[in-house]
Amino acid sequence: MSSSHVERAQVLAEALPYIQKYSGKTVVVKYGGNAMISEALRKAVISDIILLHLVGIQVVVVHGGGPEISAMLKKIGKESRFVDGLRYTDEETMEVVQQVLCGKVNKDLVATLNRMGGRALGLCGMDAGLFQARKLSERYGLVGEITQVDPSIVEDALADGYIPVVSTVAQGVDGETAYNINADTAAAKLAVALHAEKLILLTDVRGLLRDPKNEETLIHVVELPEVPGLVKDGIIQGGMIPKVDCCVEAVRSGVERTHILDGRIPHSILIEMLSDEGIGTMLL
């Protein structure tokens, strides 16, 4: 028997206690960035999700679609504008956001999951009042702040054996409009509402680095009391601040563990969840 066979068997044996631990538990995966754009990475993420589902883990996928929205706006001759890192969303942009997120991106993802052997069901935040929101601030246009999450439609889909795939558009409670919602925030709020065991944010970075230029300085575990010091020292900075904030809020509200994972590494979800070797940053 070749050594590669033995290694494969060891990998599977190592996964068993993790499968037993998480079977029947809910895991929310926020999917975006390069892992969504590159075809090879997309396939790796989707096969991870299907494998977790098949071993009895209840996986919920929450996705954004920034690059696709920008591409569609460019097609209609409209420039993308960002304020404090959030897409400024006027009425015309909101129409595009809704079409692209709830339509194209959501359904493409559902189709890929189904094609690869999953059983996926597409939902948007307006279905059955899943996400309700009010305007965050005039400065961002139709960008919403979630006021309420009703997870019952997602729970029903999970109970029926589906992998729910959720796009992050919310129903307005302060006007007859839809709102564009930050996908990390939406994933965190949904994880809390579902009493999820884990929230995984797929990003385009290795995780939290002590030295942003050196991937060897990855911080594997961060406990909540350490966060303010890491912000003060400039270790958590820029686009990482809102991601860490989402994780902190989720843990404070009852989610067992949160992970910031590099979606550029093939099968990073499986390595993080089903092996002894964590590869991202875990906040707990």
Automatic annotation (TrEMBL):
Organism annotation: Intestinimonas butyriciproducens
Keyword ATP-binding: yes
Gene Ontology biological process terms, A to Z: L-arginine biosynthetic process via ornithine
Pathway membership, UniProt: Amino-acid biosynthesis; L-arginine biosynthesis; N(2)-acetyl-L-ornithine from L-glutamate: step 2/4
Signal peptide per UniProt: none
Positions of the Aspartate/glutamate/uridylate kinase domain: 25-262
Keyword Transferase: yes
EC number(s) recorded for this UniProt protein: 2.7.2.8
Coarse class of the protein's main subcellular location: cytoplasm
Residue positions binding substrate: G65, G66, R87, N180
Keywords: Amino-acid biosynthesis, Arginine biosynthesis, ATP-binding, Cytoplasm, Kinase, Nucleotide-binding, Transferase
Residues the UniProt record annotates as site (Transition state stabilizer): K30, K243
Top-level taxon of origin: Bacteria
Gene Ontology cellular component terms for the protein in this record: cytoplasm
Family: Belongs to the acetylglutamate kinase family. ArgB subfamily.
Subcellular location: Cytoplasm
Name the record gives this protein: Acetylglutamate kinase
Function, as annotated: Catalyzes the ATP-dependent phosphorylation of N-acetyl-L-glutamate.
SUPFAM superfamilies: Carbamate kinase-like
Catalytic activity: N-acetyl-L-glutamate + ATP = N-acetyl-L-glutamyl 5-phosphate + ADP
Molecular-function GO term, any one: acetylglutamate kinase activity
